[in-house]
């Protein structure tokens, strides 16, 4: 019996444990196993294998029971996830349903989650932009949050490193505030997107409309073929999982890569309850897992633990990891754990018509989605009555209208006659929000989730800065649209709750000072150096870029740091 | 219809003769149950036939297939049964009755008893009204009609027939041409 126990402990002991198999966890798994470390990847959801577990990927619209529409009963049972743009009949099986993992909304917060191998990397919008020092220096310059302990120079080589492997399409635009990367050919702007890009360049000194940079293999290199991935086929059905591996997901890329190494154990249905801290050893020794099916508690051990559970769940795990040394959550000497949570403000859109370029249309589909307008407000100096700024999407399309007038033969004739119509243009804002102490997540004192873990209380809201910034986006974009000759300009401002942007960040922020931050410049907990947090939870500020690429680079850099420290002994 | 009544009466008589009325199949109750399997909508066979006839009137078989041949009528039922809220479903039921009443008034017989031509004439008016923002409908007729037409059009334009024979839906385009001359679109 004693021997058996020893064997059992041995079986449950690894060199490294990675909590989460998504965007950043997949990278940790790949980097550790590339270096031969015996690595356990814990995934709280089910296993989703590339190709094999994409049941809808090759279905035609008529093959879905409701041709793509989510049934009313499912919508009513899932008011939160139903608000997500990608929650359709083709991808609903990759989203967490509202009742599956309850949480407390002190203020409205749409927490969109994907519990499966690959997490939300299966479902993301695949937009990838680097940060620059205009972003990393933001908090210090503008006096909010705390200073980032890193600068662009620290992360730039790691951006290159992950970009080469993931495959990022884009142009080298030479814009200081949005550094160029290792790019595959960009998906080009169409006639009206190009027209607007030229107009903006002519009219404004520091505003740009560029091809959106995205994680699609426009022209795969050998490293992508080695992953078993192929060229993007412009299906734009990415949320179903891609049979070509045309876009980057942990499922198509990092996770199978790690598994092929022979050093990786992937354990699905493993909900991490807490990280085990050994008061005597003064470090974390492992994690306690609740098996999602049997509800049995199991412990796993390792020298190093990477927390990549997605921003709010990474907070939840640390908050729930209590010990004599850390009664308020692991590494929480500063009292900042769970605080300074922020997100991106996506709550304004603008649409218009363009009566020109009638001789052009497009053919096929653009996986990049069109154009991207990097932040132009308050970049070089403070120039508005609000802090920071926003990026924006911009796209032009001739969707064509089908008339469904009439009945009988007339209706049939109308339905096949697709009138190309004029061009329409659209833009949406992606605003930086300011992390604040009063924007926090915490454990509920009594409510538990189905795995016996305290429910997360979420209290995050917009503020006055967000309102002013939104107003400015509307004004500036209206002006840019008007001067470009766009007509019938329609502004829409919605009241979406934070979270629907699916860019929640912070709570375990990086910083120089252990008294005011959780993580050091290597993403280690200041007070527990063998625990790293490299997902969205680690963000000190949010800037306005889509964040996933930065998490990937953070993760690869942090693993490299761990390995080099380990080498030193 | 008459045939149905006669058939039903004959079976009932036969059942009485056999003294086993209790085992009459439920489909032979007064109005008859619909053939289509529905979870929430409660309709009878005549109402089902009306909706079937309406979808066929909106989308008749011509030299190309119509609603019945493509199963659009079944799709309409499925969508309204699964994808509409309780309130809309109530409007559907109420409006179905309103539609039947109005048709009877206009045609002098039930919609189902009308000829294809008579049905088309009646539905053309309903369709015109449904497109007219100023048209005031004190009943749920227009609401009902819009639901059926919307789902008929949606089901048709997303059907295999339409997406392979009338337009070409590409699951795998394999290309993005950002500049494509409009002149060439006629060929697609």
TrEMBL record, chain A:
Q: In this protein, which residues make up the domain named Glucose-methanol-choline oxidoreductase N-terminal?
A: 199-321
Names of the cofactor(s): FAD
InterPro entries, per the entry:
FAD/NAD-bd_sf (IPR036188), GMC_OxRdtase_N (IPR000172), GMC_OxRtase_C (IPR007867), P2Ox-like (IPR051473)
Q: Which domain of life is it from?
A: Bacteria
One Pfam match, by short name?
Answer: GMC_oxred_N
Named from the GO MF annotations, one term is: flavin adenine dinucleotide binding
The UniProt entry, under SUPFAM superfamilies, shows: FAD-linked reductases, C-terminal domain, FAD/NAD(P)-binding domain
Identify the keywords attached in UniProt to this record, alphabetized. FAD, Flavoprotein, Oxidoreductase
Q: Which residues form the Glucose-methanol-choline oxidoreductase C-terminal domain?
A: 435-554
Q: Does the keyword Oxidoreductase apply?
A: yes
Q: Which family does it belong to?
A: Belongs to the GMC oxidoreductase family.
User: What is the protein name for this chain?
Assistant: Choline dehydrogenase-like flavoprotein
Q: Which organism is it from?
A: Mucilaginibacter phyllosphaerae
Q: What is the taxonomic lineage of the source species?
A: Bacteria, Pseudomonadati, Bacteroidota, Sphingobacteriia, Sphingobacteriales
From TrEMBL, chain B:
Q: Which Pfam families match?
A: Gluconate_2-dh3
- Name of the protein: Gluconate 2-dehydrogenase subunit 3 family protein
Q: Which InterPro entries match?
A: Gluconate_2DH_su3 (IPR027056)
> Where on the tree of life does the source sit, at the highest rank?
Bacteria
């Amino acid at each position: 019996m004693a021997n058996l126990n020893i064997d059992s402990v041995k079986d449950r002991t690894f060199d490294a444990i990675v909590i989460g198999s998504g965007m950043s966890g997949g990278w940790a798994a790949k980097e550790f196993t590339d270096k031969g470390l015996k690595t356990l990847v814990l995934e709280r959801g089910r296993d989703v294998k590339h190709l094999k577990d994409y049941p809808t990927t090759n279905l035609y619209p008529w093959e879905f029971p409701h041709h793509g529409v989510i049934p009313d009963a499912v919508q009513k049972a899932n008011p939160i996830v139903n608000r997500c743009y990608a929650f359709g009949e083709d991808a609903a099986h990759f989203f967490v349903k509202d009742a599956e993992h309850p949480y407390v909304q002190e203020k409205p917060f749409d927490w969109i989650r994907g519990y499966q191998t690959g997490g939300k990397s299966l479902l993301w919008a695949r937009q990838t932009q680097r940060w620059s020092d205009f972003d990393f220096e933001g908090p210090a310059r503008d006096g909010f949050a705390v200073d980032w302990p890193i600068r662009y120079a620290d992360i730039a080589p790691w951006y290159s490193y992950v970009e080469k492997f993931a495959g990022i399409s884009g142009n080298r635009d030479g814009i200081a505030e949005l550094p160029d990367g290792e790019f595959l050919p960009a998906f080009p702007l169409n006639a009206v997107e190009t027209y607007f890009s030229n107009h903006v360049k002519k009219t404004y000194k520091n505003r740009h409309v560029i091809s959106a940079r995205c994680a699609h293999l426009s022209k795969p290199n050998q490293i992508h073929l080695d992953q078993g991935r192929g060229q993007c086929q412009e299906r734009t059905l990415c949320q179903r999982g891609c049979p070509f591996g045309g876009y980057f997901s942990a499922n198509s890329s990092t996770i199978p890569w790690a598994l092929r190494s022979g050093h990786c154990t992937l354990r699905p249905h493993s909900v991490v309850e807490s990280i085990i801290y050994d008061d005597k050893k003064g470090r974390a020794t492992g994690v306690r897992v609740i098996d999602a099916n049997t509800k049995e508690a199991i412990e796993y051990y390792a020298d190093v633990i990477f927390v990549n559970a997605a921003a709010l769940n990474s907070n939840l795990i640390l908050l729930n990891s209590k010990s004599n040394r850390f009664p308020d959550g692991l590494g929480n000497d500063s009292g900042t754990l769970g605080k300074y949570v922020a997100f991106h403000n996506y709550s304004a859109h603008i649409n218009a018509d363009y009566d020109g370029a009638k001789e052009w249309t497009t053919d096929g589909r653009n996986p990049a989605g069109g154009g991207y307008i990097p932040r132009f407000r308050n970049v070089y100096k403070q120039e508005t009555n609000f802090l920071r700024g926003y990026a924006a999407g911009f796209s032009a399309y001739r969707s064509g209208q089908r008339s469904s007038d009439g009945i009988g033969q007339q209706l049939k004739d109308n339905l096949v006659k697709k009138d190309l119509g004029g061009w329409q243009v659209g833009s949406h804002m992606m605003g930086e929000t300011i992390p604040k102490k009063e924007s926090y997540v915490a454990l509920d004192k009594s409510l538990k989730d189905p795995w016996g873990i305290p429910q997360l209380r979420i209290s995050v809201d917009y503020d006055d800065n967000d309102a002013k910034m939104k107003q400015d986006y509307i004004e500036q974009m209206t002006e840019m649209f008007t001067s470009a000759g766009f007509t019938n300009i329609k502004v829409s401002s919605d009241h979406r709750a934070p979270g629907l942007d699916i860019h929640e960040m912070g709570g375990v922020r990086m910083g120089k000072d252990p008294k005011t931050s959780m993580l050091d410049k290597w993403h280690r907990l200041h007070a527990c150096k063998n625990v790293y947090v490299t997902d969205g939870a680690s963000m000190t500020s949010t800037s306005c870029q889509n964040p996933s690429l930065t998490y990937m680079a953070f993760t690869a850099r942090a693993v490299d740091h761990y390995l080099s420290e380990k080498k030193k002994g | 219809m008459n045939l149905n009544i006669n058939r039903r009466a004959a079976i009932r008589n036969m059942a009485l003769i056999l003294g086993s009325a209790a085992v009459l199949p439920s489909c032979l109750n007064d109005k008859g149950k619909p053939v289509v399997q529905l979870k929430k909508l409660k309709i009878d066979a005549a109402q089902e036939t009306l909706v079937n006839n309406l979808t066929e009137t909106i989308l008749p078989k011509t030299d190309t297939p119509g609603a019945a041949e493509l199963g659009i009528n079944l799709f309409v039922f499925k969508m309204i049964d699964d994808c509409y809220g309780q309130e809309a479903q109530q409007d559907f039921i109420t409006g179905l009755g309103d539609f039947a009443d109005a048709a009877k008034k206009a045609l002098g017989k039930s919609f189902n008893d009308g000829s294809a031509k008579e049905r088309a004439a009646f539905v053309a008016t309903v369709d015109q009204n449904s497109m007219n923002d100023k048209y005031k409908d004190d009943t749920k007729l227009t609401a009902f009609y819009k639901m059926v037409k919307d789902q008929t059009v949606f089901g048709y334009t997303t059907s295999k027939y339409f997406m392979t024979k009338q337009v070409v839906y590409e699951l795998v385009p394999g290309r993005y041409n950002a500049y494509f001359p409009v002149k060439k679109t006629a060929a697609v």
